[in-house]
Specification:
The protein has 423 residues and is of the alpha/beta class. 31% of the residues lie in helices and 32% in strands. The two termini are 31 Å apart. About 4% of the residues have low confidence.
Length: 423
């Protein structure tokens, strides 16, 4: 499998006032876009479509019809999910190699899908795990499609299944219509390093599936970790992905050596770029003192052991120059605002659901101001469907009396999408 070249760039204000302890940096990881993004060999990659076939997929009938059309492009395996899980393609329960004949067979199997039964998403994930672990593929990706809530198992059952699948395969989740729960699919997509989004109109499924599968098949390096080394007596405050979406990786650290820990980033393809916000608390220094606050490396498994794909350094320099120590790096400032934007949107929507109009207005107003300041036009448009914007600069808004459920769920699912700071 060809492998793209990685670059690691660090953006920070390394200057701290005397006694200062917190070192912030934004680390941009990118892959070269010149490597041919050809799909990996069949034995190196595996794709499973998990399609909800519960009774609710019949209402309206276009849901199951469009799902059939979307999954007709599936190459490797299809799972039909109700209150249980069943492999409908290939019939032997394994994974098929992509080709004209297997695609035709998949189309025929999907065409026979009929909705009926309940919804137990954990069971679907268990079966996908079983199928993936029986195949030698390195790059494993699933697409999970549902239109309903996980009603036929406990929340603990779903958590157990998610924990089982974590680190085994990635999963993009899509909710059709408005009767599913954003928090449930977000739990899955976050743990399995995927995406979550709403498909309000079933007619959009085929294009969405095609885009997800194209992206998945373009991956060339599996299971890349962000390895952060810090000196003795230092402590990681947080590690967060901040672009293209906000994902807190802090709690997912796996110790990898003395003063070093790995944070999962999933699979990478050519021409990708992601930003990470890192905060390290160090021992306070004196004026003129310099230190290496962190070493950030990209690490991937290889037959000969862990391979370092790129590396960047985070520095700390103590100064009595107030002009230097109080300057906030523009990348750090930008993404701090984007992280807050995602947080206040979700808090504002929850307050709205709970009937706390004052809190909802304040939170969503703050979100409007942050979106305006950062130039996040897509989020600003989504916010404008939930609130009437009086003044975007100050975040003065009024809650709309009536909001379409699909608009509210779109704002929720896409709240973590960020815009890049200009380099």
């Amino acid at each position: 499998m060809s492998q793209p070249d990685f670059t690691v760039d660090v953006y920070q204000n390394e200057y701290l006032q005397e006694g200062g302890r917190d070192v912030n940096a934004v680390v941009t990881v990118a892959t070269a876009g010149t490597v041919a993004a050809a799909p990996a060999a069949a034995m190196d990659s595996a794709e499973i479509i998990i399609i909800d076939c519960s009774g609710s997929m019949m209402s309206p009938r276009s849901k199951i019809a469009e799902a059939r059309a979307a999954t007709a492009a599936v190459a490797f395996a299809v799972i039909a999910g109700t209150h249980q899980a069943k492999v409908i393609f290939p019939e032997d329960g394994g994974l098929a190699v992509a080709g004209p004949q297997t695609r035709d067979s998949a189309k025929q199997a999907v065409a026979r899908l009929q909705p009926g039964g309940g919804t137990a998403i954990g069971q679907w994930l268990w079966l996908a795990h079983q199928m993936f672990t029986s195949h030698p593929a390195q790059l494993r990706h699933a697409i999970l499609l549902t239109d309903g809530k996980d009603e036929h198992e406990s929340s603990g059952d779903l958590d157990t299944a998610i924990n089982l699948c974590e680190g085994v395969f990635s999963c993009d989740c899509r909710g059709v219509g408005t009767d599913w729960r954003v928090d449930e699919l977000r739990r899955i997509s976050t743990a399995l390093l995927g995406t979550v989004d709403i498909v309000p109109d079933p007619a959009g499924l085929a294009a969405d599936f095609s885009a997800m599968m194209t992206a998945a098949m373009g991956k060339q390096v599996a299971d890349v970790a962000l390895r952060v080394w810090t000196p003795q007596h230092s402590a990681i405050q947080f590690v967060k992905q901040v672009a293209p979406t906000v994902e807190d990786l802090t709690g997912r650290r796996v110790d990898s050596g003395p003063q070093a820990g790995d944070y999962p980033t999933g699979a990478w393809g050519a021409g990708e770029s992601r930003d990470y916000h890192l905060c390290v608390r160090v021992n306070p220094g004196t004026v003129g003192q310099e230190m290496l606050a962190a070493r950030v490396s990209l690490v991937a498994d290889s037959p000969s052991g862990p391979e370092v794909l790129g590396q960047g350094l985070v520095r700390a320099v103590w100064t009595d120059d107030e002009g230097l120590s109080t300057r906030i790096n523009k990348h750090v400032a930008h993404y701090t605002g984007q992280e807050e934007l995602a947080e206040v949107i979700q808090e504002g929507l929850e307050a709205r659901k709970q009937g706390d109009e004052a809190a909802a207005t304040a939170k969503l107003g703050r979100a409007v101001a942050l979106a305006h300041q950062s130039g996040n036009e897509d989020t600003a448009k989504l916010l404008a469907k939930v609130v009437d914007v009086v003044d975007p600069a100050t975040g003065t808004v009024q809650l709309k009396k009536k909001v379409d459920d699909a608009d509210e769920m779109a704002l929720d699912t896409r709240s973590t999408k960020t815009v890049r700071t200009k380099k």
